[in-house]
């Protein structure tokens, strides 16, 4: 698979740690497991319910069991989890109206931290394979260090077309970093960012705080006041968000090798995907800047390079 953007950008693969073929393998496993693909905005919770984490538990247990009386939902969900592992318990879950059909659901999630055109490429790949995903974009990217500045242009025409094909476009909130960790200014920036995205006829319904660099006192993007236009959006992930049975993220793929420390382990996502069964919800977070055609030149400096499953991806 060769993307147009890879032909016009010489540094297309400067962050690549995974081949696009890994994504295609994941999708094949999902299809084999009979997975239903959903976006964050498809879940049963509204923005005005996101002020309390308990609402996410209610959403999950309602989705899991179909049972609405919250004090008993925890027990119902526990029984359902047991039943997924022990078929002898399956009959007991009928008391709690276990929802049908018992097929896995997957939320594919992409944060466009860098190279937003690669997120568009990822979405086109998924469209080709009959998959939809939730995708989160900055309005303005914050450099993490001097020399980390780079172009961050959004192709609004492509995003509009992909949204019409069932993809979710959301706001990746880095307002606190943009503001220099000024809370009131962060709220103003979040309002402006959301207005800008919506001005391009995008149906922004959810947001995800960026896991950025914290400022003084530990302030980070998740501390942007949940008010103004931000309060009109569902908080989908990062410090708050939807519950799931299994999850996988490549968020630590760039962890460096630390001499004397071999604790880093990133599980093969294909193994996680193959574990989906029954009425389970899986969440898979992929940062598209890590996916491409050619392995980045400094790959041996990352701890993931020491894992056998990863080395097999690249035949190294």
Model description:
With 316 residues, the protein is α/β, with parallel strands linked by helices. It has one domain: TIM Barrel, CATH 3.20.20. 34% of the residues lie in helices and 13% in strands. Strands 2, 3, 4, 5, 6, 7, 8 and 9 form an 8-stranded parallel β-sheet that branches. A two-stranded parallel sheet has the order 1-10. The longest helix has 17 residues.
Secondary structure blueprint with pairings:
Elements: H1 4-8, E1 18-19, H2 20-32, E2 36-38, H3 54-65, H4 70-85, H5 90-93, E3 105-112, H6 116-128, E4 134-137, H7 156-164, E5 168-173, H8 175-178, H9 183-199, E6 206-209, E7 234-235, E8 246-249, H10 269-274, E9 281-286, E10 291-292, H11 308-314
Parallel strand pairs: 1-10, 2-3, 3-4, 3-9, 4-5, 5-6, 6-7, 8-9
Helix pairs in contact: 3-4
